[in-house]
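Many introductory courses stop at the sequence. We go one step further.
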Amino acid sequence: MRFDILMPTILFLVTLVAMTLGRRAESKLKATVEDREFKNRDVALMAAMIAVAISIVMFIPSLALIALFMFSYSSLLFTVSYAFSDLKPHLTTFYCVGFIVVGLLAIAAAFLGVVPVDLQFYAILAFASFAVLAFFALACARLTPETKQKWYLAGLAPALFVLLFAFFSSTFVWFPYLLDVYGIIFAMLIVIYLNSLFTWKTTFIFAAALTVMDMILVWVTQTMVVAAEHISGLGLPVLVAFPTIPFITTQEGILLLRLGLGDFFFAGILSSQTMKKYGRKTAIISILTMSISFGIFELILLNPELTAALPVPALPATLPILLGWLPVVLVKMVAERGQKPKEPKAEIIPPPETQQ
């Protein structure tokens, strides 16, 4: 019997970190969305738009698709980075020095021939310029020590992402290493950025709508499978890919399992809203049950005799996530309803008799 413990563990850890960071960052990021919240029609429309986008993504030219995703990812990186760019001096130094070191490592990789030969000169020039800009950003931040948001610090993260994708996306450094790093980063950022827009009621509506939509796109139209193969072939960080533990070998080598960022986002929103409603302990339990449920569903995909029973050799990951989350929440709801104190019945006290 084949099984895997790595991907459920990654789902647990990424969701836990995203939930924890989202709680701390909510006050800062609320300003960027002007304290708005999704209404019922908003989450229904959001699920419908996701379905439409997945259905037409294979008809979009590759270059246009790459440009769209790069713009979206860069905007998300800049927005979140800007919200936290009011760093203290020692954190600013650590932040900028980190980018300088990454730029120097990229230059070394280009010198060693990791980058394609025709791009080697441009890669060295681009990353050298980036390291210099990071140094000047540090100098400017040190000259203005007051803790306020700085756009030139926020711009470093998206600039590095664009450069790494431009020069390393066709190399072994990008897949699976940098792809997984940025996939996890973006999965957490999406949860952190959008969590404040959800309420407890809209979370239930969104969970139901997204799961039904996912099941239709995977098992009925099979659009999700085709779209995932198309987008993943472009090297965009829309998923993470990890080997199974214990290792499973095939004729092509070690088997890699893939999980989309939307599934991390789904688990992150459910757990974050659960923490708001019932506290951190219940939220962590829900993350654990979601991860276990996901691991059980993986057994179906990893064992051919079980996969043969499926209409399509694929599973909508939102289904095990929802089935792992829902029992914990329902038990908590029933328990809290039973603990509510009963309101005492009002007693009617007759007026005192007047003496004649």
